[in-house]
Design a protein that fits this description.
Helix content: 25-40%
Structural class: alpha/beta
Radius of gyration: 19 Å
CATH class of the largest domain: Alpha Beta
Strand content: 15-25%
Order of helices and strands: EEHHEHEHEHEEEEHEHEHHHEE
CATH superfamily of the largest domain: Thiolase/Chalcone synthase
Distance between the termini: 31 Å
Largest sheet: 5 strands, mixed
CATH architecture of the largest domain: 3-Layer(aba) Sandwich
CATH topology of the largest domain: Peroxisomal Thiolase, Chain A, domain 1
């Protein structure tokens, strides 16, 4: 019996229209375009504006576009996983809300929280279900409204984040394409360097926590940078070695878009030239679970069937990991 592989058979992404540039940000907080570009490589980020709009609205637009683009009926979807750390609310799951908004009625859905590694963790989860033979069509959404947890008076974090969603359709294939391998890691001791202080069961919301601005991203930047720059590169090299891949075998590295220096370090460690690395951080910033599908979506027309691709991410938790996949279709 032939092994069933799970392959990405379609991709779509969506970003809000509003662009928050470094110039505009410099009027809000003590920063500058030069300072931001030198440290992280971000020029602008997209922000979801409007009363009552949340992560599900970002995800809805990405999934609607994906269904239309692939000619897929929402009623044919078996499973939807939403990777996010900015859910619309504590419950129900944002995945449930997205499913309702786009008319997915025959699937079960749930959220997965692994911060910036969330899309990879969710893609592997969907892959396992597809490879089991039980499901035929799964959607993985990476979506975050990071502006909802960003303190725009904190010059160290507010330049970093943007809002976006990306979605992929995952289906079984009998050919040797799709997700080939993955290596994931977590280290919960890293939580002290990157977290949100309040709003959970340990420290529920109160007037005091709101006044103290404890519902925004807290990050010790240097500590996170040191962990990320080593571990994201290490795990990407590890998956190459485990699959006997040389730099010349790899068509693309798709790194999480958090910091241009981390991306460059990972590419160098893998021995890849810059032209083999997908980068769009300058235009979108760190959209957390959305960065990898957003990148692939922008580069989709450059991908060819059989391309060997490495995905790599590092996020709060700490979480980090890498995936090796063979692209399953030619540009349409």
């Amino acid at each position: 019996m032939e092994k069933i592989h799970a392959a990405i058979t379609g991709i779509h992404a969506w970003v809000p229209d509003y662009r928050l540039t470094n110039h505009e940000l410099s009027k809000m907080v003590d920063t500058s375009d030069e300072w931001i570009m030198q440290r992280v490589g971000i020029k602008e980020r997209h922000i979801l504006k409007g009363e009552g709009l949340g992560t599900s609205d970002l995800g809805e637009m990405a999934v609607r576009g994906l269904l239309e683009k692939t000619g897929t009926s929402p009623l044919d979807i078996d499973l939807l996983i939403c990777a996010t750390i900015t859910p619309d609310m504590a419950f129900p799951a944002t995945a449930n809300i997205i499913s309702d908004k786009v008319g997915i009625k025959n699937a079960w859905s749930f959220d997965l929280g692994a911060a910036c590694s969330g899309f990879l963790f969710a893609l592997q989860t969907a892959t396992t279900y597809i490879e089991s033979g039980k499901y035929k069509k799964a959607i993985v959404v990476g979506a975050d409204k990071m502006s909802s947890i960003t303190d725009y008076t904190d010059r160290t974090t507010c330049p970093l984040f943007g809002d976006a969603a990306g979605a992929v359709l995952v289906e079984p294939v009998n050919e040797d394409f799709g997700v080939m391998d993955h290596i994931f890691h977590v280290d919960g001791s890293g939580r002290k360097f990157l977290h949100i202080k309040a709003g959970g069961s340990v420290k529920p919301a109160s007037h005091e926590t709101v006044d103290a601005k404890e519902h925004y991203v807290y990050q010790e930047g240097q500590s996170v940078f040191k962990f990320a720059v080593v571990n994201m590169a290490d795990v990407a090299v590890e998956i190459m070695e485990r699959n006997n891949l040389k730099a010349e075998d790899i068509a693309w590295l798709v790194p999480h878009q958090a910091n241009l220096r981390i991306i460059d370090a990972t590419g160098r460690r893998m021995g890849l030239p810059p032209e083999k690395i997908m980068i769009n951080i300058e235009n979108y910033g760190n959209t957390t679970a959305a960065t990898i599908p957003l990148c692939i979506w922008e580069y989709e027309k450059k991908l060819k069937k059989g391309d060997k691709i490495i995905l790599a991410a590092f996020g709060g938790g700490f979480t980090w990991g890498s995936m090796y996949l063979k692209w399953a279709y030619d540009p349409k």
